[in-house]
């Protein structure tokens, strides 16, 4: 544990910053989704670290143990369920929460050992704080009542562009299944229904050159539009 972690642990949580003293490891391949979590942590008082794959997460966890592990269920080198299963059986273990744009992943995450599930997009400060706090022991809880907020966070548009480019690269590299899954999750977060429908078509038919070509074209169009703006 580094000196900043020690300093944060010494700071008690407050009503306005109820996650002071917590370190969250976000295992997330989407820059857009991770930027949202970063903003949520900033508003809540928590420190954040990021791993963009199972390999990177295991490397982090071999060095230090966060207080909260937030795991995306779809990662470039495997399922987040595998990491949840591994860490849930260690001691001491962090609070483990899963996240996904696909609500059907909830049961798999909870069966693997996660305490909770946060559906994407994760933008509500109140929901983020409440889901973490209800799994923390009493000595890590803020004392007294907490004000309820309806505030939401808005990740930077550049992070969304980076994710569009990442999806393109994955599909161009022949990773149709992962690229389609990543694009579907991104489209849910961005509210792009047409892109979501096409990504789901490729998920159901990953060998289809026609569906692949259509999705690549749509990603290129959206990336071009955003770069022009």
Largest sheet: 5 strands, parallel
| Strand order in the sheet with the most strands | 2-1-3-6-7
Helical residues, percent:
40-55%
Class inferred from helices and paired strands: alpha/beta
Count of individual helical segments: 10
Total beta-strand segments: 7
**Overall average residue pLDDT:** 92
Oligomer: single chain
What is the chain-wise order of helices and strands? HEHEHEEEHEHEHHHHH
Cα-to-Cα separation, first versus last residue: 43 Å
Rg (CA only): 18 Å
Unreliable sequence segments: none
Strand content: 5-15%
General form: globular
Question: Can you walk me through this structure?
Answer:
- The protein is an alpha/beta fold and 229 residues long.
- The strands form two sheets. A five-stranded parallel beta sheet has the order 2-1-3-6-7, sandwiched between helices. The chain has a two-stranded antiparallel sheet with strand order 4-5.
- 51% of the residues lie in helices and 13% in strands.
- A hairpin with a 2-residue loop joins strand 4 (74-75) and strand 5.
- It is built from ten helices and seven strands.
């Amino acid at each position: 544990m580094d000196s900043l972690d020690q300093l944060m642990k010494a700071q008690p949580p407050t009503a306005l910053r109820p996650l002071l003293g917590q370190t969250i490891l976000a295992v997330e391949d989407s820059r857009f989704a991770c930027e949202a979590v970063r903003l949520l942590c900033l508003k809540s008082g928590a420190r954040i670290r990021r791993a963009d794959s199972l390999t990177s997460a295991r490397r982090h966890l071999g060095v230090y143990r966060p207080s909260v592990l937030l795991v995306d269920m779809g990662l470039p080198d495997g399922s987040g369920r595998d990491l949840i299963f591994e860490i849930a059986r260690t001691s001491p273990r962090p609070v483990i929460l899963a996240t996904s744009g696909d609500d059907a992943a909830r049961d798999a995450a909870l069966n693997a050992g996660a305490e909770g599930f946060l559906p994407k997009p994760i933008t509500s400060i109140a929901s983020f704080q409440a889901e973490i706090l209800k799994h923390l022991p009493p000595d890590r809880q803020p004392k007294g009542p907490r004000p309820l907020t309806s505030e939401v966070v808005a990740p930077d548009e550049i992070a969304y562009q980076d994710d569009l480019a990442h999806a393109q690269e994955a599909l161009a590299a022949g990773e149709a299944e992962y690229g389609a899954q990543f694009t579907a999750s991104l489209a849910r977060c961005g509210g792009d229904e047409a892109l979501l429908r096409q990504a789901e078509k490729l998920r159901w038919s990953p060998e289809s050159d026609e569906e692949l070509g259509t999705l690549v074209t749509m990603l290129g169009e959206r990336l071009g539009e955003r770069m022009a703006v």
